[in-house]
């Protein structure tokens, strides 16, 4: 099992960074959820996440969410804010449950909600 703290040092981390760069070139929009610039699947709903289970797009979305969580975890670490660790299966399961409960929300919002959950500030 790869811990979040080890993710960026792995081959998967290199793949993740490459994927984020490719997606960043393709898309960049203000997120209505947080008012920040988000590079990624800004128009992808949780319904799409659920419908794409087992598909290649779902794998891309899962790695994108892992990148969001990793980036947020690093920023929080720099601020000495603890973040609960998880793995890719935990991330995918959490997002799937969130999307099941909120199919009209976007995957971007789901990713931000997961970060809040991991840092213990979930509303």
Any overview of this molecule?
With 123 residues, the chain is mainly α. The chain has one domain (4-119). It has helices at residues 4-7, 11-26, 46-51, 56-78, 88-101, 107-119, and strands at residues 29-30, 37-38. The protein has a two-stranded antiparallel sheet. It starts with a helix and ends with a helix.
Write the layout of secondary structure elements.
Layout: H1 4-7, H2 11-26, E1 29-30, E2 37-38, H3 46-51, H4 56-78, H5 88-101, H6 107-119
Antiparallel strand pairs: 1-2
Could you give a short description of this structure?
The radius of gyration is 14 Å and the shape is globular. The chain has 123 residues and is mainly alpha-helical.
- Secondary structure tally, helices: 6
Please describe the biggest sheet, giving its number of strands, its sense, and whether it closes into a barrel.
2 strands, antiparallel
Beta-strand proportion: under 5%
For the largest sheet, list the strands in their spatial order.
1-2
What integer value in Å does the Rg equal?
A: 14 Å
How many domains in all?
A: 1
Shape: globular
Intertermini distance: 29 Å
Low-pLDDT ranges: 14-28
Q: Please identify the structural class as seen in this structure.
A: mainly alpha
- Kindly state the percentage of residues in helix: 55-70%
């Amino acid at each position: 099992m790869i811990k979040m703290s080890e993710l960026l040092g792995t081959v998967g981390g290199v793949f993740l960074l490459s994927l984020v760069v490719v997606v960043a070139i393709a898309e960049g929009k203000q997120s209505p959820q947080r008012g920040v610039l988000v590079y990624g699947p800004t128009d992808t709903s949780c319904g799409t996440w659920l419908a794409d289970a087992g598909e290649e797009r779902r794998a891309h979305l899962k790695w994108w969410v892992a990148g969001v969580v990793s980036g947020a975890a690093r920023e929080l670490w720099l601020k000495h804010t603890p973040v609960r660790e998880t793995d890719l299966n935990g991330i995918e399961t959490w997002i799937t449950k969130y999307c099941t409960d909120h199919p009209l929300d976007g995957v971007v919002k789901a990713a931000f909600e997961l970060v809040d959950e991991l840092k213990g500030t979930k509303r």
